Amino acid sequence: MYEADTGQLINYQKYEIFFNSNTPRHVKTQISSLLGVSEIIGRGKYWGLPSISIRRKKKVVFNFLKDKIWSRLNHWLTKNLSKVGKETLIMSPTQSIPTYCMRVFLLPSTLEEELQRMMNLFWWGLSIQQSKVINWLKWEKHTMKKEHGSMGFRHLHAFNLAMLEKQG
């Protein structure tokens, strides 16, 4: 009906289907052949997000966010940036990287803490190897509103919850 109404053809080679582990093999085969799509075997991605349900190893699945943010920060760490330059890098590109994932998934709190720790280290001009050095201000102080004398960075957990509430 879609093809007849729009004049567009569906490319069934791009589609995959995911079955619950309790689905019998013969039912999976029947549905796959009826729809003309293949079954997802491994862990795929769809628009940069994990395409199947995430259960126990959420932190491992979302490690790509940590790697992406750290590579961005590490690239700029060698540059001699002012506090305004660092603020701009933390607020716009760095904090926007996990936003798309946060609209769909609740990120593990340990991952959120690691991301905030990386941003805090970057703010103070430290690399990940220098993590034992004193951070003069807790990240929670940086995430307060600017009106209260803070930087106004996002608190990732609160932002993640807000994004999920928006979906609801």
Secondary-structure topology with pairs:
Elements lengths: L1 H5 L9 E2 L7 H11 L2 E2 L5 E2 L2 E2 L7 H4 L1 H15 L5 H14 L2 H4 L6 H15 L15 H4 L13 H12 L1
Parallel strand pairs: 1-2
Antiparallel strand pairs: 3-4
Helix pairs in contact: 4-7
Brief overview:
With 168 residues, the chain is mainly alpha-helical.
Structural description of this entry:
With about 170 residues, this protein is mostly helical. It has nine helices and four strands; from the N terminus they run αβαβββααααααα. It has a two-stranded parallel sheet with strand order 1-2. A two-stranded antiparallel sheet has the order 3-4. Helix content is about 50%, strand content about 5%. α2 (about 25-35) links the parallel β1 (about 15) and β2 (about 40). The chain folds into two domains: about 1-40, no CATH class; about 60-165, no CATH class.
